[in-house]
What does this fold into?
Amino acid sequence: MPLLLICWNLRREAATVKIGVNVTNFTESLDVAVVAQKLEELGFESLWLPEHIVVPVNTASSYYGSSDGSIPEYMTYMVDPLISLARASAVTKRLRLGTSICLITEHNPLLLAKRVSTLDHFSGGRFIFGIGTGWLREESEIMGADFDHRWSQAKESVLAMKELWINDEAEFHGKYYDFPLVRSYPKPYQNPHPPIILGGTARNVFKRAVAWGDGWMPSRATVDQIRSGRAVLDNLAATVERDPESLEITAFFQPADPGLINQLEEAGAARVVLRLPPPSGKEALVQLEEFARLLPKHLL
It folds into this structure.
């Protein structure tokens, strides 16, 4: 085994998994600032917010999370995650702030790069950029995405944003995005930029994460899937002489089960994100306290 992987495995054994909570925040939810304060008070590591920009009235797409494929009504009422996370950042000091996920191909990278870097700047480097390309074809196409080649477009978007974040003057010339030398400020607080975590289980997700990302965030993954994914990431990282520690696995949408969380950590997850179910109203604070009660103190 390469020395880099041996050192990484030793560090992994000494690590303690981080625990975050995903909140489906929409117009009927409790104020995200109140939820964020409660999360920090209870000792959780991070807050995660999802995104839908528009939901078509008529669609042929099916939602995998419902028994009949119908799109849950709450998705229509989701608030903007970046603005919401900015609100959360203003009332917290340690809580990390993540998108779960940002539908990256539905945004102009010049605008998105500035919004991300502004949030990271004002939060003192607490933003985690969870990205994906979505499943709702009609929404993607309304927003200008090339749905059939959405991960190729996503890669271009990320590469363009990296140029804007890292360089004083940046240009980009690709198939989907093309701009001359520009200046874009502020720069992110984190150097060189916030971690970019790829969601989903697409066929090439591991290659993409190693080539231009910083981690993998599968939803409802089993312990075996996490273990297998960790091995693939480690091996791919070794082939390009990348430190495997730079590639975190976030096990997303998991129950508050201490035994399962320990197994996920042993399998290679650096973070486990619990799901606070919608509508996340006043009962949300009680649910968060119940999560904290179920979990050992060393996890929070």
